[in-house]
Q: What sequence folds into this?
């Protein structure tokens, strides 16, 4: 066997070994566990209402796509009257893979809380959790199990 053939074989063995290691590492990156219940939505616009502790929270998502900026709107009311001064936070977690979660604070305008978020770009299973904390009251959480497509 010539020298170049031996070198080629050593190179092939090295490439195969690297491939096996890479596959083994990928196998360890399993899906994350969902940690909150919520309606299954998407792809496409979605809306849900949660009533808790006297508060009524409506969350609307649109266009709810992976490739576009998404807009989230949250209306908080109590006894039919809008509630201002809440802290409203969105957490976006991709369930299909391990990657950093994204968190956002919604901006209030006239009793409505809203934000447009940059495209998340990754299609698949996401969990979106909105946490509404009215001043001096317990937080209300609203979750979606969201299937995003490009
Ligand atoms: Cu991802």
A:
């Amino acid at each position: 066997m010539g020298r170049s053939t031996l070198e080629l074989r050593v190179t092939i063995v090295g490439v195969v070994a690297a491939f096996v290691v890479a596959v083994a590492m990928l196998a360890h990156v399993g899906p994350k566990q969902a940690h909150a219940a919520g309606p299954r939505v998407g792809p496409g616009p979605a809306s849900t209402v949660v009533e808790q502790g006297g508060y009524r929270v409506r969350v609307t998502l649109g266009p709810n796509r992976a490739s576009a900026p998404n807009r989230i709107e949250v209306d908080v009311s109590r006894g039919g009257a809008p509630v201002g001064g809440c802290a409203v936070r969105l957490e976006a977690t991709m369930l299909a893979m391990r990657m950093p979660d994204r968190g956002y604070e919604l901006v209030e305008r006239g009793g409505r809380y809203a934000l447009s978020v940059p495209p998340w770009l990754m299609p698949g299973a996401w969990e979106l959790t909105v946490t509404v904390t009215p001043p001096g009251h317990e937080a209300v959480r609203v979750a979606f199990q969201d299937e995003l497509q490009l």
